[in-house]
Every structure is written in structure tokens, then in C-alpha cells.
């Protein structure tokens, strides 16, 4: 009788433990989905706002408004960190669903976002100092050294590449519009941020136009990304 009762109690303990573990996993996934949704809704539009508010890029204007230049770049860097958090959450949600190629794509987009974060931090700290002592050098090829060149080159390769790969991945899973907005926006913004800036010079307004033209769809793409991965049923496989 005693051994029968013990076996029965042990079985009951095991049965009750499974739902607790299951509900704990569900709660964790729900929190990650909520985090992805929130960071996407904040990171995308906040990024667009900082791009729109970007001050003039020539050295004399930067020297005259150094604090505002540093502030807008600090805010843009924060928005990129929020986006990186969103991508990390997406990675956590699909870790057991996507194959190695899909995970590599997400890691590339995450690395590109962090590299662009580094570029923005470098830009916001370096250029106001240069503008104070040598304003004519700001945003010209004469002001690029090896250390800064490494950051700029790496960011301009990995950032657009990561979002193009992410666009292809999302298209494969039925999220064509989201992928198109992120891929197109990421590439156009990157072109405006560096190639256009050095091509047309810091006095040209073309850089701002191209950056905003890329940042707008990119920001909307993040909002849609958050909606996709923020719900229980995420992607059609």
C-alpha cells in the first residue's frame, strides 16, 4: 500500500511539473515577443527622427553648433542600439526554427547595425573636435585616418549587406514588403551617409535628401518587423 501510494504521488509530481515548465517557456517567449514589438516601434521611428534632425555637415556649421551635432548623433546611436536589441530578440525567437543560413543572415544584420552604431559614435565625437581646430577638413578625405577608415569601411560593407540578406530571408518566409523596406532603406541610407557625403561634399543638401529617403522606408520596415515577430504566429514556413 505504501509503495503504491509513493509511486502514485511521484507520478503526480512529474505530471504537474510539466505544465509549469511549459507555461514558463510560454511566458518567456511572450516577453521576448513584447520586447521585439516595443523595440521595433521605438527604434525605427526614433532613428528616422534623428536623421531628419541631423544638422549641417560642413565644418564651420558643426563648430557653431557642436553640442547639437553631438546630441543628435548620441540619439541616433541610441536608436541603433534599440534596433540591435530588436534583432537580438528576433534571433532568440527563431533560433530553433531557422537553419544556419537564416541565423547567419540575422547575425550579419545585427553586426552591421552595431558597426553603424560605432560609426555614428565616432562621427559624433570626432567631427566637433576637428571642426573646432580645422573646420575645412571635416567630412573630407583628408580627415580619414587608418582607425576611422576601418570603422567607416566595415560599417559601409556589413550594414547594407546585412539588411539585403535580411530582405531576402524575409521574402522567403512571406514577408516581402518588410524585407523590401529594410533592404532598400538600409542600402539607400548607407549610400547617403558616406558615398553621397564624400561625393557631393559636406555643403550639399543631396546627402540629407538621400539619407531621409533611405531612413523612412527603413524605419517603417522595423515597425512591420516588430508586428511580424511580436505576435504568437510569426512567419509562415
UniProtKB/TrEMBL annotation:
Question: What keywords are assigned to this protein?
Answer: Membrane, Transmembrane, Transmembrane helix
Question: Which InterPro entries does the entry mention?
Answer: MFS_dom
The region called Disordered is annotated at 1-23
Gene Ontology molecular-function annotations:
transmembrane transporter activity
Q: Where are the transmembrane segments?
A: 38-57, 77-94, 106-126, 146-170, 177-200, 206-225
Domain spans labelled Major facilitator superfamily (MFS) profile: 104-237
The yes or no answer to whether the keyword Membrane is present is yes
Transmembrane helix among keywords? yes
Q: What is this protein called?
A: Major facilitator superfamily (MFS) profile domain-containing protein
Source species: Microbispora rosea
Amino acid at each position: 500500500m505504501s509503495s503504491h501510494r509513493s509511486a502514485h504521488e511521484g507520478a503526480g509530481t512529474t505530471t504537474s511539473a510539466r505544465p509549469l515548465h511549459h507555461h514558463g517557456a510560454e511566458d518567456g517567449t511572450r516577453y521576448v515577443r513584447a520586447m521585439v514589438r516595443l523595440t521595433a516601434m521605438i527604434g525605427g521611428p526614433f532613428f528616422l527622427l534623428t536623421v531628419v534632425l541631423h544638422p549641417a555637415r560642413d565644418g564651420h556649421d558643426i563648430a557653431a553648433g557642436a553640442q547639437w551635432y553631438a546630441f543628435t548623433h548620441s540619439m541616433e546611436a541610441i536608436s541603433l542600439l534599440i534596433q540591435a536589441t530588436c534583432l537580438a530578440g528576433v534571433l532568440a525567437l527563431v533560433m530553433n526554427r531557422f537553419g544556419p543560413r537564416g541565423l547567419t543572415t540575422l547575425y550579419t544584420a545585427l553586426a552591421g547595425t552595431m558597426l553603424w552604431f560605432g560609426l555614428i559614435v565616432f562621427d559624433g565625437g570626432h567631427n566637433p573636435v576637428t571642426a573646432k581646430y580645422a573646420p575645412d577638413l571635416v567630412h573630407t578625405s583628408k580627415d580619414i585616418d587608418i582607425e576611422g577608415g576601418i570603422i567607416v569601411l566595415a560599417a559601409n560593407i556589413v550594414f547594407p549587406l546585412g539588411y539585403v540578406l535580411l530582405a531576402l530571408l524575409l521574402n522567403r518566409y512571406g514577408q516581402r514588403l518588410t524585407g523590401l523596406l529594410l533592404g532598400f532603406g538600409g542600402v539607400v541610407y548607407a549610400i547617403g551617409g558616406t558615398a553621397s557625403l564624400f561625393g557631393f561634399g559636406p555643403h550639399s543638401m543631396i546627402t540629407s535628401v538621400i539619407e531621409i529617403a533611405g531612413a523612412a522606408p527603413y524605419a517603417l520596415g522595423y515597425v512591420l518587423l516588430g508586428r511580424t515577430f511580436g505576435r504568437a504566429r510569426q512567419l509562415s514556413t
